[in-house]
Amino acid sequence: MEPNVNMNAVAQNLGQISILGSHLGGKYFKTGAKETWTDFDNQKRAIELNPDQGNFILNRSPRKFEVRDFDVIAQTIKTNPVDGTTCVVFNPGMDSEAEATIVAGEVGFGQATDEALLEALKGEKRIFANGPKLLAKVNDLNQHELDKLKALIKALNAQADSIISTMKANEKKVHDYEEALTKSKAALKTNTTDSGNSVSIVVEKA
Prior knowledge:
This protein has helices spanning about 5-10, 15-20, 40-50, 115-120, 130-185; strands at about 25-35, 65-70, 75-80, 85-90, 100. By secondary structure, the chain is α+β, with helices and mostly antiparallel strands.
């Protein structure tokens, strides 16, 4: 069964369709985010229920933003019978199927704009044609996440150093006291003699 196609839309947008068609044999791209902390929500909940027994935990899992690439091995054109939009379908009938709607007057498709990137990260079906531009924006997000992690690690290291310093100071206080006590005992010589109820203690200066 041949797909329903609005040939007027095709005739009016030959340039854009040609651009879309030029990706046959190439790639298109998608993006998405994944949490880097496995099973974070359950671990966070467990710690919140037993705050004195668990480890410290972040307010959310760090995220990594991915560029996902797909080979374009087939294309077709179809018109949506519901809203009348015409689009080029990449890899029709395959797991990697994706659509690029034909918009009159639009130059190119799948531009990696901030708006399009945000929509894709929210789960909307967005595909991108310009790999380098998408890469730059996605890795900007990764760098921002990495900067926050590094800042947190620096702060945690400073706090860890403070605890280590306190431990050493505690050890020194006790060690110095024990050392002074030992020296004092060594200098103290007792000489007890029973003479009725009297006890004589002789203290010699060090």
